[in-house]
Design a protein that fits this description.
This protein is α+β, with helices and mostly antiparallel strands. The protein has a single domain, classed as HIT-like (HIT family, subunit A), CATH 3.30.428. Strands 1-2-3-5-4 form a 5-stranded antiparallel beta sheet. Strand 1 and strand 2 form a beta hairpin. Helix 2 crosses helix 4. The chain is globular. It starts with 8 loop residues before the first helix and ends with a helix. The structure holds zinc ion. The site of zinc ion (ZN) has 6 residues, from helix 1.
Length: 158
């Protein structure tokens, strides 16, 4: 069984967030931090990084697990409202980094292949398209603030 890794990329990111050194933070939630993804090829792609360094959902105590799933759903709703996405994709893989996190992808009818999963559609690492789609704090500030505002409104109603 996969176990949480030492020198975990997500734990390192959580440390940077807590030090105020992570530019793409949308919001701190009860169970995790919502951030914009490193690639913005799918504009609005966001993640929920679990505060608990668990590998699988069943390792979380039930109240935390339920809250984590609810907060992922809130983030997804905020992404949909902020981007006008046609559809949302929710994914928790953890094959590379064994630390629970959700990927939330807004999907559009204009995607290269709107019916297929996102993973084969991202630009090749190192390509111009990849470089151009990297998170850019200045370019993406408005997007980030829109998602944050929607998320706060959703949570205020919850
Ligand atoms: Zn970790």
């Amino acid at each position: 069984m996969a176990t949480h890794q030492t020198n975990c990329d997500i734990c390192n990111r959580l440390a940077a967030i807590r030090e105020g050194k992570h530019p793409s933070v949308i919001a701190e939630l009860d169970t995790g931090f919502a951030v914009l993804g490193d690639s913005q090829f799918f504009r609005g792609y966001s993640l929920l990084l679990c505060k608990t360094p668990a590998t699988e959902l069943d390792e979380l105590p039930k109240p935390t697990r339920v809250r984590f799933l609810e907060e992922m759903s809130q983030l997804a709703e905020a992404v949909r409202k902020a981007t006008g996405a046609f559809k949302l994709n929710y994914e928790s893989l953890g094959n590379l980094v064994h630390h629970l996190h959700w990927h939330v992808f807004p999907r559009r009818e204009s995607d290269p292949d709107p019916k297929a999963p996102v993973w084969g559609q991202m630009p090749k690492p190192g390509s111009d398209a990849d470089t151009q789609s990297k998170f850019n704090p200045e370019r993406d500030r408005g997007l980030l603030e829109s998602i944050r505002a929607e998320l706060h409104a959703i949570r205020a109603r919850a």
